[in-house]
Amino acid sequence: MTMIVNPRIKWRWEGDKVLLSTLAIMNKTAGEVLELLETTNDTKKIADTLHGRYPSVRLDKLESDVEVIVSQFQKFNIIVPEEYDAESLLTIHATCTEDIASVFNNTLSAPVGVACMLTYNCNQKCLHCYTLSPVKVSNELKTHEWKRVLDELSELRVFYTIFAGGEPLVYRDIVELVGYASNKRLNPAIATNAYLLNEKKIEELITAGIRGFLISLDGATAEVHDTFRRSKGSFDRTVNAVSICVEREIDAVVLATITQMNVHQITDIMELADTLGVRRLSLVKLRKSGRAVSNYSLQLSPHEYVELLKKIYEKEQELQKTSVLYPDLPAVYFEKSIGVNHYEELKASGRIELCGAGIVGCVVSPSGDVRPCDASGDISVGNVRENSVKHIWDTSVLFKKLREIKKSDIHPCNTCRLHDTCLMGCRALPVQVGDTGDIYRADPLCEECYTTFGGEK
Q: Using omega within 30 degrees of 0 as the cis cutoff, is the peptide bond preceding 412 cis?
């Protein structure tokens, strides 16, 4: 059986360590073995090569070490049989945030992933939109400017890029940019409302080298989904697009933002995703940014979230094909619903969204402004027309502050008895990083948790 380095895995050297696209970290020896596995899967040849580099180490010791390392690579699908599809088994490393903090001091040589927001133009007007799209921007980056950005991301060995918006499919040269990013080995994906994602467009994007889609589905019926997105006919188009992606075996992660408008349909959305054959369904909390600020009454109360988590957990047991990614809610909510142990299991399996704003990722806006997150508002830490992504990544004062924040700094959560356990939500919302923001302020959802349950020491 021929073993190969998993084509879905990307990696790069960070000093004398190796960082994988799953955010796992390996020591120098494991990194050298991985590097050699890209040219041969003969473990004895690999040991011989290492012996040439480290002649003071016995060959039999190196052979034994290589066998152990390769065995671990197989266990975590870093290397796989040539014909094996391990795509659905790749998850973010459970302790990635702690590891990146302890090993790299939250300071990487480059982002792990970058979201390229091609345009604020959009064919929908969602009630929760973090960019207030559709908005006309007179100074949007041209296609050749985006290519220059992609060139640099490739040189920096950024693992993936997501084309977002607005709605990226209304951007005229989206197929061209996907092809360009694919040729640069940037594993391009598209975050889309899927209104324009018909069979022809999907085929064009597959040919160009698309690696996957993040598709928004905010209701289990047309009435709820279309009303929320203020776009008649959107539900049917979205479901059709998901079906085509599943049929064509293209990775399609379905995103459902939880609100008062669809809370009664969340389990139905889970069932629909499973029926469609979706591999991953990500249930997302409402973030206080953009249009959601004026529509924040759509947010669930702490008690409503507790009840919903119980229903999600129960429904999850019935699903056959779909893996559910849980929203990053306060640990107290999980304790009061399905238990802290299950919360820990979800974290360990990479099934809770993590905030890595300015630490593992960043965003480039349509006009070239670099931001910690797509939900950070109008904040800018630099512009790619004026400076390189690398320069901005390395020198941004805000990014430096985000990398230095400790859980014990975040108020009022730092006095909660579960603050060491809790992931503690978003770190780069407008109320935190905006002009009048407080970078040590908790995610508004976490503040509501504290106000309701008081940390319950």
A: yes
Q: Which pLDDT does position 88 carry in this prediction?
A: 43
Q: Which of 46-50, 76-80, 244-248 has the lowest mean pLDDT?
A: 76-80
- On whether the CB atoms of residues 323 and 88 are closer than 8 A, the answer is yes
- Residue spans of the domains in the chain: they are 3-89, 108-370
Answer whether 142's CB lies under 8 Å from 157's CB. Answer: no
Task: For residue 271, count other CB atoms closer than 10 A to its CB.
Answer: 16
pLDDT digit string (tens) for 272-306? 999 999 999 999 999 999 888 889 999 999 999 99
Alpha-carbon gap, residue 392 to 382, rounded angstroms:
6
Q: What pLDDT band is residue 95 in, cutting at 50, 70 and 90?
A: low
pLDDT over 90, % of the chain: 82
- Residues near 225 by Cβ (< 8 Å), separated by ≥ 6? 217, 218, 219, 234, 235, 238, 262
pTM of the model: 0.92
Which residue type is seen at 257?
T
Interval 228-249 mean pLDDT: 96
Q: Is the pLDDT of residue 384 over 60?
A: yes
pLDDT confidence of residue 92: 62
Helix axis angle, 234-247 to 222-229, nearest 10°: 110
CB atoms under 10 Å from CB of 194, counted, come to 28
Residue 55, CB-side half-sphere exposure with 13 Å CA sphere: 1
Q: Is 446 helix (H, G, I), strand (E, B) or coil?
A: helix
- The one-character DSSP state at 105 is T
Which pLDDT score, from 0 to 100, does residue 421 have?
Answer: 93
Q: Peptide bond preceding 134: is omega within 30 degrees of 0, i.e. cis?
A: yes
> Which superfamily is assigned to 108-370 in CATH?
Aldolase class I (3.20.20.70)
Show contacts of 447-454: CB within 8 Å, 24+ apart: 447/412, 448/299, 448/301, 448/302, 449/302, 449/329, 449/330, 449/332, 449/333, 450/412, 450/413, 450/416, 452/301, 452/302, 452/303, 453/302, 453/332, 453/336
In this structure, what are the phi and psi dihedrals at residue 145, rounded to the nearest 5 degrees? -75, -40
Alpha helices per DSSP H over 277-330: 302-316
The DSSP element (H or E) to which 273 belongs, if any, is helix 266-276
Beta strands 25-26; 17-20: pairing state: antiparallel
